[in-house]
Design a protein that fits this description.
By secondary structure, this protein is mainly α. The protein has one domain: Rhopdopsin 7-helix transmembrane proteins, CATH 1.20.1070. 74% of the residues lie in helices and 4% in strands. It is built from 9 helices and 4 strands. The strands form 2 sheets. Strands 1-4 form a two-stranded antiparallel ribbon. Strands 2-3 form a two-stranded antiparallel sheet. α3 packs parallel to α8. The termini are far apart.
Length: 285
């Protein structure tokens, strides 16, 4: 379950990882640290803030907290694996031979991506039959997307990677279709005050999720032969490892913590519009 991502023209060990400059190594390590801190802080915020919401919207925020808590743990493990995969020799960070275990990220996605769908549907507060139908479609499609993508992710063969990547793209496109078509049709049932935030949620998913198939397509030794030649010709060593790890971290922060904050604002706005919740707040005050 290890990441093999040697760039042509850069020295590497049996683990397949390239040598990195101190800047390259540390910028990835610092982004992992930033992601752990962001996910942990977001989890605390979501769990503590749930009492500010009407009861019907609290499950959505609990799921948001669960998503970032899971991500916090996995990014902690990813960072530990990254630190174990390298050691400093002279003025370079070189592979230790242990490899970099990137399976933690897929373990995170198989849990958190379906939960992202759950928190969005939960905060929409749709009719039970509509919500159940949408959840079934989105959760099954999300699990298929992650499951079908993993065999290609661990393969260094371009053809194998392409086949599984295309297979994974089918549920990926389907999820976006459901979000744009079916959830857009449900906007008329939502308060005017939250429709704009829901639209931002959909855009956030589209933009952040778009990075994942791009990274999947360009990463590592699975690239066509011409591409490593181009990388070598411009003298960029370790570009795949550094760029993709930073990109994944930024995308995960945005798609989980950022998305969760939007869910919170939708739930908070809806709670403030709920006359029953307003009575409870007044009574407590």
């Amino acid at each position: 379950m290890y990441l093999f991502a040697a760039e042509a023209g850069s020295a590497s060990s049996a683990s397949g990882l390239p040598n990195l400059t101190p800047f390259q190594y540390n910028v990835v390590d610092n982004f992992f640290s930033l992601t752990v801190a962001t996910m942990g802080a977001a989890a605390l915020f979501f769990f503590i803030s749930r009492n500010q919401l009407a009861y019907r919207y609290r499950p959505a925020l609990m799921v948001s907290g669960l998503v970032v808590a899971i991500a916090c743990y996995h990014y902690f493990m990813i960072r530990m694996s990254w630190q174990g995969a390298y050691k400093i020799e002279g003025d370079m960070f070189v592979p230790t031979g242990k490899g970099f275990n990137d399976f933690y990220r897929y373990a995170d996605w198989i849990l958190t991506v379906p939960l992202l769908m759950v928190e969005l549907i939960a905060v929409m507060n749709l009719a039970s039959d509509k919500a159940r139908s949408l959840l079934t479609k989105l959760v099954v499609a999300a699990a298929l997307m992650i499951g079908l993508g993993y065999p290609g992710e661990i393969s260094t063969d371009w053809t194998t990677r392409l086949i599984w990547g295309v297979a994974s793209s089918v549920p990926f496109v389907y999820i976006l279709y459901v979000l744009w078509v079916e959830l857009s049709a449900s906007l008329d049932t939502q308060p005017q005050e939250v429709r704009g935030i829901i639209q931002i949620c959909k855009l956030l998913i589209l933009v952040t999720w778009a990075f994942y198939p791009i990274a999947y397509a360009i990463y590592g030794d699975s690239l066509p032969n011409a591409v490593p030649g181009i990388i070598r010709s411009i003298g960029i060593s370790g570009l795949g490892v550094v760029g993709v790890q930073i990109g994944y971290a930024i995308a995960d922060i945005t798609a989980k913590a950022g998305f969760g904050m939007l869910i919170y604002y939708i739930a908070l706005t809806k709670s403030e519009l709920d006359p029953e919740f307003a009575k409870v707040k007044t009574a407590v005050a």
